[in-house]
Amino acid sequence: MKTKEEPHNEQNTRRDFIKKSAIGLAAFTIVPRYVLGGQGYLAPSDKLTKAVIGVGGMGRGHFGYEGTQVVAICDVDQNHLKQAASMLDKGVKTFSDYRELIQLPEVDIVHIATPPHWHGIMAVDAANAGKDIWCEKPMTHTIGEGKRVVEAVKQHGRMFRLNTWFRFKDTFYGMGTTVKPIKKLVDSGMLGWPLKVTVSKHTGYDWKFYWVGKDHLEPQPVPPELDYNAWLGPAPYKPYNAHRVHQTFRGYWDYDGGGLSDMGQHYIDPIQYFLGKDDTNPISVEVDAPQQHTDAVGIWRRITYTYADGCQIILDGEGKDTNVPYIEGPKGKLYPGFKSDIPDLERKLAQFPDPDPEIVEFSESVRTRKKFALNEENGHRSCNIVNIGLAALRLGRSLKFDPVKQEFVDDEAANRLINPVMRAPFSI
Q1: Quick check: 190 pLDDT over 70?
Q2: Does 6 fall in a domain?
Q3: pLDDT tens, residue by residue, 395-409
Q4: Considering the domain boundaries, does residue 61 fall inside one?
Q5: What are the residue boundaries of the Gfo/Idh/MocA-like oxidoreductase bacterial type C-terminal domain, all occurrences included (predicted)?
């Protein structure tokens, strides 16, 4: 990361990067937001303000959410920064170093739209700086990073939103309904218990297996507009290749985890919600997949998660079961389109209470200081499920997990993936 603008070329070494980063870290002192403007500070217009870190396609697509005003943006790619700036008011501030951005006293919300290997560090730094946080999925790249985000948000009294919304609005993929009626059905007990949920193309969920990496990348010159060292940040140094960055970064373990990491929290978080398991995780995961490359993410056939009470989540990557219900219990089944083998389901379901209301606009959460529907705690738990599966895929074996300690049982190699060593001088 850089403390001032300077040309970048492919001759920069890792030693240069670490030296510059150490100087930069020493130069920046994160000041808590309450010192700068008071806890709950609002802009003079009484309109919530937002700063966006990472203004590629995802970041630019989120400029207009919930009536907030974008006042600052940051990106390590100057082309992204210029394109984003052209879409906003001329007074918007631009940065190539996010640590400068999060110190702005006029910023209420920091929106993190970077690759996942940056999410944890940036969220913790934003919380330390007294900012409320809006983070893209997956919440964090590792289980350990997620635990640190939960701690930092709690310590500094911040509000946190994870940006996958299917637990509280929008039609839930192949189900033809929002998640609320599904939760109402599960809570009613009409399906029985335990339940098995199958997520596959036949129940409406595409695992995007085109997000795979290439197992042999030739080094290429770094484009002049990109600060590649800053893009890598805490990730291990690897020679630049265009396939590592921007849209195709999802295919490499150092930064993401393929289709499972890209779509997993979209699909799995609502399941945690309607199963009533927001405070726990599965105790085991089984994988059926080809041996994964050490650098490039590959495909998988099937991942099976099992909870302590016998509930299961089946991720069917190859679409093996063509007529499988989305939810199956001992008393009934629910299929895509909210169809069921339970006669007269909708009339029977109307007799049961609706799920408890939630805060589903982040602006309300920021103003009232009440937790958002999908926050750092339940978001961390659903992200854990993604990261448990990724660990099993990378190691090529089934794993046992302790949801209380949030660590793998009797598996040193798996536990090393909880808090992997970050490239110096980064830590969380």
Answers
A1: yes
A2: no
A3: 999 999 999 999 999
A4: yes
A5: 175-427
My answer on whether 205 and 326 are in the same domain is yes
Find the angle CA(356)-CA(361)-CA(364) to the nearest 5 degrees: 95
- Label residue 4 by pLDDT band (50, 70, 90): very low
Question: 180: phi > 0 → left, psi -120 to 50 → alpha, else beta; which?
Answer: alpha
| pTM for the full predicted model | 0.89
Alpha-carbon span 297 to 154, nearest angstrom? 34
CATH number of the CATH domain containing 55? 3.40.50.720
Please report whether residue 130 resides in a domain.
yes
| Mean pLDDT (the chain, rounded) | 91
Range of the domain at 375: 179-418
CA 231 to chain centre: 18
- Residue 256 located in a structural domain: yes
Alpha carbon 420 to its chain's center: 18
Same domain for 195 and 221?
yes
- Tell me the pLDDT tens digit for each residue of 301-316: 999 999 999 999 999 9
The answer to whether the peptide bond before residue 32 is cis (omega within 30 degrees of 0) is no
Domain of 193, CATH number, reads 3.30.360.10
Q: Is the pLDDT of residue 136 over 90?
A: yes
